[in-house]
Specification:
By secondary structure, the chain is of the alpha/beta class. The protein has ten helices and eight strands. Helix 6 runs parallel beside helix 7. It comes from Clostridium neonatale.
Length: 230
Amino acid sequence: MYFKYDDGENLVLNDFNLEIKKGECIAFVGESGGGKTTLLDLIIGFIKPIKGNVLLDGQDMQLINLRDYRKHIAVVPQNTMLFSGSVKENITYGVNVSEEKLNEILEASCLSDVICKLPDGLNTNVGEHGGMLSGGQKQRIAIARALIRDPKIIILDEATSALDIQSEVHVQKALKNLTNGRTTFIVAHRLSTIKDADRIIVINNGTIAEEGSYKELITKKGDFYNLINN
């Protein structure tokens, strides 16, 4: 697969070939501008390759209904957008869910303790853009929002990069519950976010420089080893 932007001269992805199994957790790492975000956009279907194909269960993505496909995707970005409403409204986002199911999701997203401390519990207004909440709390709401949709594909785009260490611990636990059994794609600089991935894909100049588990790549002492030690 090949890709370049209309206003760019160089290929962002060059002869890129990767097969992912259902339920696999894949982490993309590499220098800034190396093509990681481009890959996420290709997976979501925001852009298409100039040559080659993105296949879903053997079918060309360009031939499927992208609107239906995206219903099965949940994205947890670096900065979660919340609207001025209650915590519950921001989590359910128009989805009808039983109280029992909601409580399960609050537990899985490590939000139960947070909710207990809020003045009006789930009915507490988060303020404009979620200003009443910390970054870690907003990220856990984003995870709960994803869990409630029960997606097949998870995309984590620098989901913990803006958090302090204490907040990250809670969010990492929630992320493990979210990604368990689901096909997951991660772009992150923090080692803690990618360490447990089934495969780490090291991208250099739009191609795969090396791939393997964290343990395999550390033992190899190649591009990945150099990347995290510089």
